[in-house]
Design goal:
- This protein is about 35% helix and about 20% strand.
- Strands 1, 2, 3, 4, 5, 6, 7 and 8 form an 8-stranded mixed beta sheet that branches.
- α4 packs across α5.
- The model has no long low-confidence stretch (mean pLDDT about 95).
Length: about 200
């Protein structure tokens, strides 16, 4: 389910409609549909795209003219993108100079065993049968196959004016429930959980 705060973050960072927007890793196309309803011209791409309104193509293979997008949006997708260098270069080519890149990410480097234990406990409380038997295994598995945000910044920097990612809550969005956002935020504020969400708005150089 598309979180309302994600929509709010993206809409606040986008130029006004009818701007042309590239959505990277569109999944089931919920965000793209929401943006289209608001008047945006959206090309939603995902290599596993099987939904109406989502084109099944990898980012580095998008066949569009250079500078043809006013903005690009990547929600929980860049950490999976392969090959990352070529994909970030293609993203830089597709967004026009002065255009915006809006990124909502999972910061795998900040995801530690305390975060894993809390997430696993919440999943089990919901009756979910997790294949991860312990927090250390989950942390190791994720860090072994997801791109860290530091690498994302480095690959994007030649094309975009990239600042620091802003941390925030994320775990409640990962197979849990919106009502767990407030408890997660309280634990973050108390220093008992890391902030594993990361958001960024960058400008095309």
């Amino acid at each position: 389910m598309l979180a309302s705060d994600v929509v709010g973050f993206v809409r606040a960072a986008l130029p006004g409609p009818p701007a042309r927007v590239l959505e990277v890793g569109a999944g089931e196309g919920e965000l793209a549909a929401t943006l289209r309803e608001a008047g945006y011209d959206v090309l939603a791409v995902d290599p596993a795209g099987e939904r109406p309104g989502v084109v099944a193509v990898a980012l580095h293979e998008v066949d569009e003219a250079a500078g043809s997008f006013d903005a690009a949006v990547a929600v929980l997708s860049l950490h999976h993108v392969e090959p990352l260098p070529q994909s970030c270069q293609r993203l830089g080519e597709l967004v026009r100079q002065g255009g915006r890149l809006i990124v909502d990410e999972f910061d795998v480097e900040r995801f530690d065993e305390s975060a894993a234990r809390w997430w696993l406990s919440q999943r089990r409380a919901r009756g979910e049968d997790e294949h991860h038997t312990d927090a250390a295994t989950l942390v190791s598995d994720l860090r072994g196959h997801l791109h860290p945000v530091a690498r994302l910044r480095g690959e994007l920097a030649p094309w975009f004016a990239v600042g620091e990612f802003v941390p925030g809550p994320y775990l409640h969005r990962w197979g849990l429930a919106p009502e767990l956002r407030a408890p997660e935020e309280l634990l973050i504020a108390a220093g008992e959980l890391p902030a594993t969400g990361a958001r960024l708005v960058a400008m095309r150089r």
